[in-house]
Design a protein that fits this description.
Blueprint lengths: L2 E3 L1 H9 L4 H7 L2 E4 H12 L5 H4 L4 E4 L4 H8 L4 H13 L3 E3 L3 H9 L4 E2 L1 H10 L7 H11 L5 H10 L4
Parallel strand pairs: 1-4, 2-3, 4-5
């Protein structure tokens, strides 16, 4: 399985010490160079990123098609642009991405996308975590992950936690 990730799923799980969920679900995750750079900038903000630095299952690649990447950069941030470009080049199974516009652009190009909340739902389905709610609460309080209460209630209802 080929999984490419934008910054948000990796950085948010890293900030709460649960980056290993991605390894347990996908065995290997590919991030583009700009995503790697964004994640490493957390260190300059005083965050412990050793779990990321030691994750040999995360591969850093650079998209080859610079014209396509430049086009995406004209409408998206560099991490999203490179993640979508790389996902297309690698014909990935899933692109992990949270941002609404990036998700829309990726889906318009035929990519299957999954956000961080979807990753947590899948982790619960695979019995890697017993509950989604405590992790979402931690993401909101520790990592500053943004979710509307309405969306949170919908997800918790879907996973039988409401």
């Amino acid at each position: 399985m080929i999984v490419v990730s934008d910054t948000s799923p990796v950085s948010n799980l890293l900030l709460i010490g649960r980056l290993g969920l991605l390894e347990n679900l996908y065995r290997s995750v590919i991030v583009p160079k700009s995503v790697d750079t964004e994640i490493r900038m957390l260190k300059g903000l005083g965050k412990d990123i050793s779990e990321y630095e030691n994750a040999v299952w995360i591969k850093v690649l650079t998209p080859k098609d610079q014209a396509k990447t430049s086009f995406f950069k004209s409408i998206l941030d560099p991490g999203e642009a490179e993640a979508i470009s790389l996902a297309l080049e690698l014909d990935c199974d899933f692109l992990l991405i949270d941002e609404r516009i990036g998700t829309k652009v990726a889906r318009e190009r035929g990519l299957k996308t999954l956000g961080l909340v979807g990753v947590l739902v899948k982790a619960k389905e695979e019995k890697l975590i017993p509950h989604v709610r405590p992790i979402l609460d931690e993401l909101r309080s520790v990592a500053g992950f943004w979710l509307t209460d309405k969306f949170l209630d919908r997800i918790l209802s879907e996973v039988g936690e409401l």
